[in-house]
TrEMBL record:
PANTHER family: CYTOSOLIC CARBOXYPEPTIDASE (PTHR12756), CYTOSOLIC CARBOXYPEPTIDASE 1 (PTHR12756:SF11). The active site is at 177 (proton donor/acceptor). This is Cytosolic carboxypeptidase 1-like isoform X1. PROSITE patterns: PEPTIDASE_M14 (PS52035).
Amino acid sequence: MISVQIIAIIKTDIILKKFENKKNKSEDKEDLLTFKLGDVHHLGTSNRYGLTNEDLNRRWSNPDQSLHPVIYHTKGLMEYCTRVLQRPPHVFVDYHGHSRRKNVFLFGCSRSSSWSAADRAKPDQPVQYLILPHLMQRVSPAFALPLCSFKVERNKESTARVAIWRQLGVSKSYTMESSFCGCDQGVLAGLHLDTNHLKAIGQDFCQALAMMKDADEDWNVDK
């Protein structure tokens, strides 16, 4: 469905525009790198299936250089930043469209909610993955915190969200879902999400990122 690609492109575009006025600052150039990796597995397609008829969001754990070149090299760049430059992505967000649930919400990764006993045996740090969803709830009328989930399911191990979380150690690794079915809450109740709504969600996301950057290390969800 072409709507998936449109959602990702609109959000990525508004995020890039939001940061354009900072591009002369060296620290912000590094931040921009994160955003420029936005819409990866939809490049050249109208949905997330490639020419090999594979779901490209199930190829992130071990992408093939020939069959999945965009994912292979994008992940390679992030691995280089993480392991060689020692500058891992602070936030990774994969934009999707959702065909059943309404509103906008995030899927994240929690050790305590993982299928893996090895994950559950390690200490969980909820503040790491809860801060962005809670900030989005505050600033975005389309965002529905109760719909967010932080389960790590075995059949999602090869998705971008889980692969980047597990293999690169990015605790704030998410899938952002925007509904094809519109909203059922607040001022947007009963409306479908059009281009202007998606741009506004992109702006809300930028605001949440800025708020997260300024948050204290001891931030908690009750603040």
